[in-house]
Amino acid sequence: MKTVLKLEEAALFILGIFLFNRLSYEWWWFLVLILAPDLSMIGYVFGDKIGALAYNIFHHKGIALLIYAIGCYLSIESIQLTGIILFSHSAMDRVFGYGLKYEKGFKYTHLGEIGK
Q1: What is the per-residue pLDDT across 36-62, written as a single tens digit (0 to 9) for each?
Q2: Are 64 and 83 in contact (CB under 8 A)?
Q3: Most CB atoms closer than 10 Å: which of 4, 55, 65, 72?
Q4: What count of other Cβ atoms lies within 10 Å of the Cβ of residue 30?
C-alpha cells in the first residue's frame, strides 16, 4: 500500500509541475522555490507545538489548493505560484515519507514515524 501512496503523491507532484508550466514564470523559479516551505521548520526553535503548527500550515494540501484557487479567481499569478509550490512541495515530501507533524516531535507524522 505504501507504494501506491507514493505513486499517487508522485502523480500529484507531476500535476504541480504541469500547473506551474501554465504560468509565465521561468523554470528556475520552480527549482529555487520548491524547498521554500521547509523554512517553516524554523518554528521548531520555539518548541514542538509551534513547530508542528508552522510546518503543518505550510505543508497542508488543502491550504495550498485554496491559495491556488484564490490566485486563479483573482487572476494573480504570484498567488497561483505560491499555491503550486506549497502543493508540489507537500506531494514531494510525502513521496519521501514526510507527513504532517504531530505535536510530540518532528519525527512523528501522520504517515508514521520518520526513520522507522
Answers
A1: 999 999 999 999 999 999 999 999 999
A2: yes
A3: 55
A4: 18
Q: 7 to each of 30, 57, 66, 68, how far by Cα in Å? A: 21, 24, 23, 23
Residue 83 phi/psi, 5-degree rounding, is -65, -40
Q: Which three cell numbers stand for residue 27?
A: 523554470
Tell me if 91 sits within 8 A of 12, measured CB to CB: yes
Residue in this structure with the C-alpha cell 519521501, named with its chain if needed: 96
Neighbours of 33 (CB within 10 A): 18
Question: What is the identity of the amino acid at 105?
Answer: G
Cell of 99: 507527513
Compute the distance between CA of residue 15 and CA of residue 3 in angstroms, rounded to an integer: 18
